[in-house]
Amino acid sequence: RNYRSRTECRGDIQRLNPSFLTIYESLIPPNEEKEKQKQLMALLDKHVKKEWPEARLFLYGSCANSFGFRKSDIDVCLAIGDADIDKAEILLKLADILKSDHLENVQALTRARVPIVKLMDPTTGISCDICVNNLLAVINTKLLRDYSKIDVRLRQLAFIIKHWAKSRGVNETYQGTLSSYAYVLMCIHFLQMRSPPILPCLQEMETTYKINVDNVECSYFDQVDKLQGFGSRNNETIAQLVWGFFNYWAHSHDYANDVISIRSGSLVSKRAKDWTRRIGNDRHLICIEDPFEVSHDLGRVVDKRSIRVLREEFERAAEIMQFDPNPCVKLFEPY
Ligand code: ATP
Ligand code: MG
Q1: How many CB atoms lie within 10 A of CB 140?
Q2: Of 105, 136, 167, which closes a domain?
Q3: Average model confidence (pLDDT) across the chain
């Protein structure tokens, strides 16, 4: 590779801010959508409580972590106290209960990697996936949402990166590219590493929130109202950050040795995690540590072929950000 890390950004970078902000704003869900989600949750809750009075429903994923686009489906977690229950049995029962209402296309997918019930609500037009006892996802959803409240530039950056990844076809875990969750972690890490930092490392601060889920201790500082203005010593704009993000993943990241870790607010070494060689299907070609399940590499879906696709896309985006007179057209061009 003859690319070298660029330290000098194009001189007219600030000119690009209005186009990025327009795209960001066009992707934000309108308030009516939140209302419809609540309406559907209330309906689901009514049915669930009848069968399992102790159970609770939680929203998780992009509909609750503040990184969701308009018209997204919703992800719901049914929390049933007992850890030893047979999930398939619960899901089949749940599907039966929901079929009796006006809901459409109700299906239990009990053999999926994450078993779910899928359905569509014709009243609100919202599709929804319901899983059972996936509480870590509920907690990491809260962590992402809390980060997004600290500095608006996280939400702006993550929207642009997710929109780019969806447009370029590199947001498909079944094809070996990365999940939206992984891209948001990459954005948080990037903003933690700015100098001065735009985001703190909440898991290294005083513990104000603590919960034990599936034997994983989850704790961090969640009083984020107290962190307003944390990033104000850094005045980088969205255009500079998009430029910097792609430049980092195209030319600076050390894929051979480094793991990004929002848990520690820094890079950690692959050697320290014993992620230096392939074990089973985990190749560790790009390493993104889960903030709570720290043995879990979100890059594990990436293989020899898809790492090339990803890196070529980062390089393409970095070139466009550096040289294209109007990057917002080419950057999001369908692949
Ligand atoms: P999209 O807008 O593309 O639907 P999303 O935020 O719903 O994005 P997904 O990647 O579909 O993102 O993940 C949904 C949620 O599931 C995440 O917010 C996270 O809570 C959880 N999740 C997804 N993948 C993982 C994973 N590999 N490990 C732990 N939790 C995960
Ligand atoms: Mg989703």
Answers
A1: 22
A2: 136
A3: 95
168-201 pLDDT, tens digit per residue, is 999 999 999 999 999 999 999 999 999 999 999 9
Q: Which atom of ligand 1 is nearest to the CA of 69?
A: 2
**Is the beta carbon of 298 within 6 A of some atom in ligand 1?**
yes
Is 4 among the domain residues? no
Instruction: Give per-residue pLDDT as tens, 255-279.
Output: 999 999 999 999 999 999 999 999 8
Spatial contact of 172 and 182, defined as CB atoms under 8 Å apart = no
| Burial annotation 280-315 (CB, 10 A radius, 16+ → b, else e) | eebbbbbbbbbbbeeeebbbbbbbeebbebbbebbb
In a domain, 143, yes or no: no
ipTM given for this complex: 0.95
Number of structural domains (the chain) is: 2
* C-alpha span between 215 and 85 (Å, rounded): 17
Task: Starting from the CA of residue 135, give the closest ligand.
Answer: 1
Q: Measuring from atom 5 of ligand 1, which residue has the nearest CA?
A: 62
Tokens 């070529």 found at:
312
- The CA distance from 271 to 104, in Å, is 50
Q: What is the mean pLDDT of residues 248-254?
A: 97
Q: 58 C-alpha vs ligand 1 centroid, how far in Å? A: 14
Mutation probe of ligand 1 site: the residue of 130, 181, 282 with most atoms within 8 A of C-beta: 181
CB of residue 75 inside a 6 A radius of ligand 1: yes
| pLDDT (average), residues 159-164 | 98
pLDDT at 32 over 60: yes
